[in-house]
Write a structure and sequence with these properties.
- The structure is a homodimer of 224-residue chains.
- By secondary structure, chain A is of the alpha/beta class.
- Chain A folds into two domains: 2-121, Response regulator (Rossmann fold, 3-Layer(aba) Sandwich), CATH 3.40.50.2300; 126-221, Winged helix-like DNA-binding domain superfamily/Winged helix DNA-binding domain (Arc Repressor Mutant, subunit A, Orthogonal Bundle), CATH 1.10.10.10.
- Helices cover 40% and strands 24% of the residues of chain A.
- Chain A contains eight helices and twelve strands.
- The first copy, chain A, has helices spanning 10-22, 33-42, 59-68, 86-92, 105-120, 152-163, 171-179, 189-200; strands at residues 2-6, 26-30, 47-51, 75-80, 97-101, 126-129, 132-135, 140-143, 146-149, 168-170, 211-214, 218-221.
- A five-stranded parallel β-sheet of chain A has the order 2-1-3-4-5, with helices on both faces.
- In chain A, helix 3 links the parallel strand 3 (47-51) and strand 4 (75-80).
- Chain A is elongated and about 80 Å long.
- At the A-B interface, helix 4 and helix 5 of A face strand 8 of B.
- Chain B binds a DNA duplex (30 and 30 nucleotides) through helix 8.
Chain lengths: 224, 224
DNA sequence: ACTCCTGTTTAACGTGGCATTAACGCCACG
DNA sequence: CGTGGCGTTAATGCCACGTTAAACAGGAGT
């Protein structure tokens, strides 16, 4: 893990540096705000630890600067007790967490781990095929940036079709996927859902339909 | 934070209850050991405060009972000076910490914080997402400089939603987070709170709703 | 003790989304 | 050219959710 530490107090910096290295991280240190901001914008860091009180450029200004330049590196603020009220301001400017000095090294390490864990996940299970991504937890499909809301039944059917892309899926299989058993559901209910899916996910420019009908058998989801 | 207090002395119970509430926690109280044990096994509490001397079932028996049934809720024992020797026994049965009565409220609060930090590995005190910062100790949300006051229940729910930003959170999970157990709370109570949150944190200019409904499933807090 | 205030919970009612079916038009394939 | 499978649209009923207001409880201040 590459960590950037921006801290002017060399005693604290050395301490933190040693602790982080012992935990297996690579640490870069900057003693000034302006330099730190540049390093953050240039370098590829996984986390930045940013002191609130710095000579020249305050921690808040650094924060504001890098965030305004589309830097998304997770930032953990280090602050003395007397500037705790300013912490909210920091969060408003895009900080990810904060820690009050003096702090135990273990707590800092735990926070760093927490931050990286938090920013790294957030990739839900998604099925992808033919330029369409299906997020079944959120029940949405994404097609070249555009998000399309789907109902639960639509997701259930599209999921099977996409999973079996390039293969014919029979009407019976689809009904089973959506309703469990084939009874209790009238004949054309499935047609209605296929229609709704086709409407929501309009065919792309190539003219090739996404969901093709195989007469007398079932449906096929386009492969590639 | 959902806390269960098992204490037969109503004077002390009231005092502790008030203190914990002021610190932003949800408190459930039981005056008897048997009831307390059941609540602990049933409900989803983050910490339990357990008096040693109880009518009917002693604190130690409660401890033994719940631990034998695979209950891992952190337990902090409350004990009078004369039963301090029994504390060792309590630790042997799976207690996490103890406190001698009479105690200062602040000390209890610190212990509770310490226990939850130890077990829950430090959820940061301020959550930030989609231009909103939530300070759950002060019970306020900040949005581009503007501070919005929230009630404890609102914070409990918003906290879960923000922590799981970008992911769907089911109604059951939310109810569990706010009330511990799913019983005892009528169906639409959650809707009312969601409504209050949406009213207080009005959607931003982009038109994208901050808290989106996933019909039949739950809610989702906007990511980014 | 009384009242005000605030937060929580419940109840009543409105609204909209979703699932399902029916009706009907069209197309495919014999 | 006809039959059966499929497409399309609209209507219906149900249920989840939204919204508002009022009941309720506890605490703070007088």
């Amino acid at each position: 893990m590459n960590i950037l530490l921006i801290e002017d107090d060399k005693r604290i910096a050395a301490l933190v540096d040693r602790g982080l290295r012992e935990d297996g991280h690579n640490v870069s240190i900057s003693f000034s705000g302006t330099e730190g901001a540049e390093m953050m914008l240039g370098g590829q860091y996984d986390v930045a630890l940013l002191d609130m009180l710095l000579p020249g450029m305050t921690g808040l200004s650094v924060l504001e600067t890098v965030r305004s330049r589309r830097c998304t590196t997770p930032i953990l603020m280090l602050t003395a007790v007397d500037s705790v009220p300013k912490v909210l301001e920091a969060f408003d400017l895009g900080a990810d967490d904060y820690l009050v000095k003096p702090f135990l090294l273990e707590i800092l390490l735990a926070r760093v781990r927490a931050i990286t864990r938090r920013t790294k996940n957030a990739v839900p299970p998604v099925l992808q095929a033919s330029g369409i991504a299906l997020d079944r937890t959120q029940r949405v499909a994404v097609r070249n940036g555009q998000t399309v809301a789907l109902t639960s039944k639509q997701v259930a059917l599209l999921e099977v079709l996409m999973y079996r892309r390039g293969l014919v899926t029979s009407r019976e299989e689809l009904i089973e996927a959506g309703w469990g058993t084939a009874d209790k559901v009238k004949a054309n209910t499935l047609d209605v859902y296929i229609h709704s899916l086709r409407t929501k996910l309009k065919d792309d420019e190539t003219g090739r339909p996404l969901i093709r009908t195989v007469h007398g058998t079932g449906y096929i989801f386009a492969n590639e």
